[in-house]
Write a structure and sequence with these properties.
By secondary structure, this protein is an alpha+beta fold. The chain has one domain. The protein has two helices and four strands. The protein has a four-stranded antiparallel sheet, with no helix packed on it.
Length: 96
Amino acid sequence: MPKSALPIATISLPNSRYGEISIAHIEQPYGDFSSPVVSIAISMEGDDDHDWKVHLPYEKLDEVIKALEIARDKSDTIPRNDKHYLDLDAEVGGGA
């Protein structure tokens, strides 16, 4: 149980009505002698019942950020046939 959590940011989750990404600083996440971490949690319903959560040690944060930037750059080069976006403004179906 963390001794203290300091919320840093809440970001709305794309393609979700209530979903959000929560980022927080956690002090002593695993007990008295554990180092602080950055917590990134995703809730599909925007509540405290997180569907996914990861704790990142601050010592590895720069490496993780670099890897995420590489993932973003690679994502831009992947061709997609995302039918969901095609129906967002449709007069029938899920877009109306």
